[in-house]
Amino acid sequence: MRTDQGHQCIETSCKLLFETVQLPVSYTRMNDDQIHCYGVEAIESNPLFEHHSELIMLLKQQVQQPLHVPIFHTTNFGECFVIIPLLRNGDMEAIVLIGPSTVIPMNKEIINALLSELDHGVTPVWISYLQQLPLYSTKRLNHIGILAFHLFNGIMLDLTDITEKYVQFEHQAEPSNQAAIAISDRRELLEFRGVFEIEKQLLRSIRNGDKTAFYNMTLSVNHDGPGILSNYNQLRKIKNLGVYVTALATRAAIEGGLYPEVAYTVSDLHIERIEDLHEYNKVVAAIGAALIDFVDRVYESKRKHLSKSIATCQEYIFNHLYESIPLAVLADLVGLQENYLSQLFKKETGVTITQFIQQEKVDEAKKLLELTSEPITAIATKLNFYDQNHFIKIFKRYTGLTPKKYRNKNKFDALSFSES
After folding, report:
1. Which of the residues 35, 84, 303, 416 has the least number of beta carbons within 10 Å of its own beta carbon?
2. Least confident interval from 201-205, 329-333, 335-339
3. From CA 394, how far away is CA 387, in angstroms rounded?
């Protein structure tokens, strides 16, 4: 990229990409302000800008952190952009932006609601601009992102590599002072603790295929929201949340034993379904359906080859991780002799009861280390390890890292963002 030959190669790739996807393609290096645009003559420019390159420059300025996968950004006006990092030795030297397109049909009702919310007049210029945006499904934009990333970087990604980053750009684009205020308010109201507990329980129920815990938890949640498309941003935010939650559920289901190919396919279908909907409550219902689908699949996968006694023991362990779990308690629970239960458990699961409990406690500890700032000693005590040294020994046995090194490697993203 530092040579004319490198620029010509990127220019040729951008032109080829435009001809393939029929969307404008723009390219800019991170260390200069020059914007190269291809195919912009085929579309009208956003009425706020004299030229498409001005919009691209604004988007570039909002990319505050290095990217390692494609990300997707939807502007307040409903314009969708695929943003591709061009990597050299792990550094982001340039970005390619593909778009604009839209994932929601720009009919008059949506345009009126969108422009009214943004205090813009519903003028013929705006109507013309928004109605000419090409309509692409999120699934197709995902595939365009994967294709373009491979074209420019020679790396083939999986769909979940990018869906987990779907909402990251929107979060970065928020003014840092507003984000800091919001996080402070949540801390003061102890909302972070509640949100973490909900996420922890929800993902654990999916990973464990624990249908009872999942339904008990979700039935108590109130999903009120606007019933019609009266606010475009509300709809976009709940869709972003749906994509993010589905990505988390996919990972949890894989950890729970669902085959990755199955989990990724299911995730792809549910995300496409979420993006195809245009009413808030229907999107919420689709998110719930996705989670139910995952927990049901993991439930069937986990219990397909287990006897009732072993499935009951596993469920008890899942629900009592923060307690001591003696073998005698499990034996009494299922009415078997301790020695026989131990043999049966190893035969059906491939691990001993002690190993299974340790693995589950380590998995739980990993989440506490990632998502909270609790001291390592407190986590060890909470999960009923003998002492901190015993916790470190067991944790390293299953992860290859000490708890401290694991935490440093997997910092809590939300708190890191608030301190940046």
Report:
1. 416
2. 201-205
3. 11
Q: Please give the Cα distance from 221 to 224 (Å, whole number).
A: 9
Over 60: is that where the pLDDT of 296 sits? yes
Read off the pLDDT of residues 252-294 as tens digits, 9 standing for 90 and up. Answer: 888 777 877 778 888 888 888 888 887 777 888 888 888 888 8
Tokens of 352: 């001993």
Spell out the residues 6+ positions from residue 36 whose beta carbon is closer than 8 angstroms to its own: 11, 14, 26, 27, 28
CB 380 within 8 A of CB 368: no
Question: What are the helix and strand counts (H, E) for the chain?
Answer: 21, 5
| Whole-angstrom distance, CA of residue 246 vs CA of residue 248 | 5
Separation of alpha carbons 197 and 203, rounded Å: 10
Q: Which residues pair with 329 in a beta bridge?
A: none
The CA distance from 290 to 277, in Å, is: 14
Q: pLDDT for 118-159, tens place per residue?
A: 777 888 899 999 999 998 887 788 889 889 999 998 888 776
Q: Is the pLDDT of residue 2 over 90?
A: no
Tokens of 382: 């909470």
C-alpha to C-alpha distance for 227 and 218, rounded to whole angstroms = 20
How many whole angstroms from its chain centre is CA 120?
32
Residue among 266, 261, 264, 257 at smallest CA distance from 293: 266
Interatomic CA distance for residues 294 and 205, integer angstroms: 10
> pTM of whole model > 0.70?
no
Contacts of 357 (CB under 8 A, 6+ apart): 317, 325
234: which residues sit within 8 A by CB, 6+ positions away? 225, 226, 280
Cα–Cα distance for residue pair 74/83, rounded to 1 Å: 11
Closest CA to 92 of 24, 31, 151, 160: 31
How far is C-alpha 113 from the chain's CA centre? Answer: 28
CA distance 402 to 258: 28
What radius of gyration do the chain's Cα atoms show? 25
Sign, CA torsion 352/354/357/359: negative
